[in-house]
Amino acid sequence: MHPLLPPGFVFGTSTAAYQIEGAVSEDGRGPSIWDTFCAEPGRIADGSSGEVACDHYHRFDEDVALMEGLGTQGYRFSISWPRIQPTGRGPANVAGLDFYDRLVDRLLAGGISPMATLYHWDLPQGLQDDGGWLNRDTIERFADYAAIVGERLADRVAHWVPVNEPNVVTLLGHGLGTHAPGRAMIFDALPVAHHLLLAHGRAAIALREAGATSIGCANNHAPIWPASDKDEDIGAAKLFDAIWNGMFLEGMLLGRYPNDLRPLLEHVVQPGDGATIRQPLDFYGVNYYNPMKVAAAPETAELPFEILDVIGYPTTDFGWPIVPDALREWLIMFRARYRAALPPIVITESGCSFDDVPDEHGVVDDQRRIDYLDAHLKAIATAIQRGVDIRGYYCWSLIDNFEWAEGYTQRFGLVHVDFESQARTPKKSYEWYRDVIAAQPQHEG
Ligand code: FCB
């Protein structure tokens, strides 16, 4: 039995510019921090980069046709800031805007509602050279960029996400250094989170001024499980939960930070910041992949917590535990805790990496992805029955793509991509998702 969602529920797919577009030097695009990071030896598992990726910049027509074949009603993509402002400041590069204009028109012609992310991690290198997200001035630059894009596209883009996963940018990009810009600053990375949240708020204001009517977010949330019921593990899990989840959702929904973190942020928070961050949201986007288990670290360690493997569950080929129940429970808790402050939820990313490739008949039998998506959609359907208002599901990802520090070694797509020939082969999960969409109840009247 296919998962059944309420009438009007939006099925979509999700991608990001640097992961699929390629064409990094075309039509005036400037370098981004990911171009720089990939060029540093040892940063990317297979030594690759997004230089060509899925060549989506030249093949977007074919890729939108794949979405039409699925029958999806929505598509979440990101706009590459260095295509719009090659150095991150100054006038718009018209050729860059034109690309997204064509993409949006092509989506609309296919009956697909566009959801655009402004920042999915590809900061113009020119801004990084001046301190990047550690520099409060980057927020002003981001507001300018949001205004440029909004003025050009707000008449046709249905939904907007200013910043993708500010927690990942903070922790992996600046805390641990496994993502661009590769800074390992541990707790000194926290100002980045505050600046990204302010950037979210300022961009939301600029987009609304430009006529945007649906503005949300795409925050990565993971249920945090303490490793045991010992006080120190529970305390470590609570602190990590505040850093991974709490500061972003409470920042955006309530305009304040969890108590545990306030002392760590006092020196960067200025009067009025909370109000700037807390903008009215038309939807709250959740990117969900898996729960995390946290224990207290030994006193000598650099960090007060340790992330342990969640054991006892199947895993994806990335090693991520598959726990759809944790999504259901987290959504129910989220609603119970924030009730009136919480707008409708959209699952802006959910998906899994499995390395299935075409067999001798050209068939990609990725039953494990079908099982994953089926279980997660059913978890969402149950959460809706329990009163959580969830309006859509954007599967990560439409096509296999450049998975950041893992390069091309992790395949998340409903469609297989041969990165030599750029051939696209819909997997079994693509057919399954198409059938799920076709089986949904229709709107009445
Ligand atoms: C998310 C990112 C997305 C993709 C998935 C697997 O954290 O937003 O770009 O890499 O993970």
Automatic annotation (TrEMBL):
The keyword RNA-binding does not apply. InterPro entries: GH, GH_1_N_CS, Glyco_hydro_1, Glyco_hydro_1_beta-glucosidase. SUPFAM superfamilies: (Trans)glycosidases. Keywords: Carbohydrate metabolism, Cellulose degradation, Glycosidase, Hydrolase, Polysaccharide degradation. It holds the Pfam family Glyco_hydro_1. It is an enzyme of class 3 (hydrolase). One of its GO terms (molecular function) is beta-glucosidase activity. It catalyses: Hydrolysis of terminal, non-reducing beta-D-glucosyl residues with release of beta-D-glucose. Its EC number is 3.2.1.21. It comes from the Bacteria. Belongs to the glycosyl hydrolase 1 family. This is Beta-glucosidase. It comes from Nocardioides aestuarii.
